[in-house]
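Problem 3 from the worked examples.
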Amino acid sequence: MGSNSAIPSVEHFFQFSLLGLVASAFCALADTGRLDLPSLAFLLAGVCWRGLVVAGIVKLRIPQKLITVLATAYLIFYPIDFYFLSHDFFAATAHGVCFLGVARILSARTNRDYLYTGSLAFIALIGAAALSTQPRFFLWLALAVLFGLGVMTSAEIRRGFQFNSLSIASAGARTGRRTGWTLAILVGSAASGILVLTAALFFVLPRTARAAAAIFPNGPRLTGFTNAIELGRFGPVAKDDRPVLHVRSYGAALPPGLKWRGSALSLFNGRRWSELHLPADIRPVQGTATVADLWQRSRRDGQRMLYRVDVSNSDSGTLFIAGVPEFINVDSTTLIRTAEDSYRAPPSPGEPLAYEVSAQQAMPLPYPLSKAERVRDLELPVLDARIPELGKEWAASGPDTSDLEIASRIEQRLHRGFTYSLDTSAEAASRDPLLDFLFVTKRGYCEYFASAMAVLLRTQGIPARVATGFQSGYFNDVSGSWVIRASDAHAWVEAWIEGRGWVTFDPTPPGSASGAGGWLKLKLRRMNMYLDAADTAWQQWVMAYNPGQQATLALGFRDRLLSIGGSGAGVTWPLKALTTAAWWTFSFLLTALLAWLVRSYAPRIHQWWDAKRRIGKIRSGEGTPHDARLLYERMLESMARRGYQKPAWFTPAEFARNLPPEDRERIGAFTAAYNKVRFGGDAAGAVLLTQMLESMETAGWQ
């Protein structure tokens, strides 16, 4: 609290609003994941300590000199934090802002200190706005707006009270409590109106700026397995339940268990699968691109799927596709098709990646495999002799054994004799993880099963490669879309079978199925669906809001109006009844609003008009001594706007004597003239009183 104390309720309202503003701004920054837990805990501890001091529970105040010494010491510590501890400019700066914020919060005593504290909160909120991609930011923003309005309104009232300390000292506790409640209601109403207006303006003005991803390229990105995988690296991802793909079907419902293929990897060095650096088909696109030839598009042996995929924060632009693609519609200038039949569309910096696919739910057609491709898909590193022997044993091939039978046998042996496990730490630390998987542990994550099968097939002369992407996911009936999480990442095998082309095999056995869980787990799962639906709407209508979506909203609104205001053709009776009810409800609300406006503002308008008429009579010399009261009330209104409220128990002379020196003389002269006119019967003095009032108002009270 400052040296010039205001009414206790207003002062407490101001102090707690300022603390709430600081806490909500820094919580918004922490929710971006760029503020570490110790810094947030330190900041909230400082806010809580200050709150206890304001509430009068704790009396200990930290000396200003100590705060100055600590702030100076931190300036010396900052380069140490940057170069040796954080190794990150943003983290070190955030630490500094938190430390200075706590120092200022604990030592704030003057209006300048409070302004400095509010500025730090504003800086933190701006940083959170640039970094946040989650709808939770809207909650923190709403709290910051609410507390910010509380700070500004109560600060203005404090300033007015500080100029009129005598009136403040005479105010009772009941007046203070009433002022506090009035402030709370005013701030809450204003904050709600601002948020509603902001939301309305948001959908009118398209959001086109997405500079956060370009400014902060190290933010969270899609867990993508696009151009390389290393044995033992998939396991930890299975514990990450963040959604990475949202898929919506435009036609029939998509079947469950689809494989969303991202890339196919052919180069294996014993521990790592990667793409070969081969020439790719790079074509400029504008809208829809045809990626299948006429032979593929004329097929009738499968079911066609039409769907849209929204990818969360992808840097590589890999397109995850289910089925055999025929048409791809992507908002990009370039579409890349790799030598392994994978697709990429590099997005613009900071832009979300979304695309639509028309695909055939069937196996690819058996295009010929060139000699170079066969050599590439049979290449192996130096292997332990036991691995080729195991492949020969499992294949059990004879003169009439087909490649398809050999692949199926190897797949079944991996299904039956091995265990799916997320714990791959021992295998990952091994010098030969594939050998340990096949002969020692016989357990692993999907990349071990896919690698083992692809290698064993190659030892038997069958071209094979490892495909990566995602599998399954779950259907969210709230948003009407399939949700694929990072934990749905998967690797499988594509083997070349003569006469059939690339055939998909999945040697990974199913993991231990978790039970449905109890009532609480089911409720939490359902709640997660609602949260995901809200996040999907946020990404689509906030982060990716553009003029196209604005046009869609406008056209939909226009069609709705036309359907309501049309002749009724094709409109069923429930819709007619709903339209009628809506019309009468709107009419009733409009009538009630007009009645309230008349009830609230008609007397004020009448008083304003009557005062204007009477002042005009006074100027023309037709006023009476009784009209002097009107001029005095007008002077009091002008003084109240400047923060000087006349208490009801003060006489006009007492009020004038207790004003600051710069106003005491002028208001004293005005009060003396008022007393002569009002109580001395000097009707002609009313004109002079009017001139004095107009002179003071014209001069702006300077």
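Problem 4, a separate protein:
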Amino acid sequence: MFKIKISRVIFLLLSGATFTVKAQLFDENLQKLQMSWQLINAFYVDTVNENKLTESAIEGMLKTLDPHSAYISADEVKKMNEPLDGSFEGIGIQFNIMNDTLIVVNPISGGPSEKVGIIAGDRIVSVDGKNIAGIGIKNSDVFRMLRGAKGTEVKLGIKRKGEKDMLTFIVVRDKIPIYSVDASYMAAPVTGYIRISRFAMTTNDEFIKAMNKLKKQGLKNLIIDLRGNGGGYLKAATDIAGQLLDGKKLIVYTEGMASPKKEYFASNHGMFRDGNLVVLIDEGSASASEIVSGAIQDWDRGVLVGRRSFGKGLVQRPFSLPDGSMIRLTIAKYYTPSGRCIQKDYTHGLTAYEMEVYDRFEDGEVFSKDSVHLADSLKYKTKVLGRTVYGGGGIMPDVYIPMDTSMYSKYYRDIVATGVLNRFVLNYVDRNRNSLALDYPDFHYFNTHFVVGDDLMGRLIEEGEKAGVKKNDEEYKKSEEYMKAQVKALIARDLWSSSEYFEVMNPLNTLYKKAVEIAGNKAGYSKILSPDTGSTQKK
């Protein structure tokens, strides 16, 4: 007979919460749930997986609430937390699998592999004496073998060009950082650029480091790129917003039926409280990205450029369960300083909610500002200049820039989707790493002198043909400039870092170019941030 203690029921359902135990501890609904579990377990025709049955019941309850309340298994919790905690434990390499061989693309700076002398281009052919070359190794196998607890050792057999014999390295695993600031560089003589991919535990520290570097290079204006940033920790978002606002201004507040109103304010110690500020957003900017964007817009601190953000205004709190799993429950809504809740509608079901972003492509919104329809009932005013902004369904930028597909083609898509482009560049860098290092000792020289010529593109096209991607002359001509930039950018990334990749690619992006123009134009910037401008300018 299935028995369950009252204290365990309460812990499972309300762990971490405060509550009052009423006289009737087991109400009818709870009895119904418990009896259903017992009946299935006792009388169902086949063997029942009790764990799966319990998990399915929890998932079923949460699905009736909202799109962001969810049950997360113990394994998923660990994987989910890694990019937000800002680190994992392992040997510290960026790798790729090419021709069934594990190749080190780059050892992570300061990581355990770099410390023992592993270099880019090394082939890892054995792990703890076990051969891993030519056996059909997958990414998941690499993670399983090379990640592990800090302080544990792993023995790697490595083949290196120019070395006749196999080399052996003993690597002691350690904490490996996962960076959330993907790029930081000077986009123009006095305009810096910082790209934030997620809001993690280390984001504020990374931002400070990037800002200090850019200030030494003459930064006066700043572009922050939040495109595609799906969010992360609330504290990380408030920390970044606090770096940009002057005085103890309200950044965001949260409130729910069982969660009292809680306000988050900026400190007086922001690194960039003056100077032109441009924030880039698009339909992939969600949650924490919208908190930062909303605060900047509501206080008229900077100019938002791009397209309407995702529209996630719900706050989740994690409730840990005894087996390491978790219920992530929506407990409140968050509101921008002007009082806006930017959560989009989710009353038509999960599928409709998830497809809403794709509907923007079908409806033409990503290609035309005129396709955006915002309700007058959701109008708000900014805190300083009284500009009109809108709640509900995301944040509308101050300057709308449609998606640019002028260089996109099916041929380009197929070259990328089949992995041909990435494999081609990886092979090219692998064969020419030493000569590239001699010819281009630093990125600046590489960026100004390296040219992707027709001969290199011809070899890429040949590789595509071998993989079944036939060249289409018209489509190739349309995408040629972009493809050449991609090749150059991927080479730069393999030789240096992701920051150099974006420094090569960004100048081809119309949204980025507009941001650089606005940030460096004092009169134009001030005109956008004027009381009668509103928040829906066209390009």
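Solution to problem 4. The first strand starts at residue 70 and ends at 72. Confidence is low (pLDDT under 50) at residues 1-23, 533-539.
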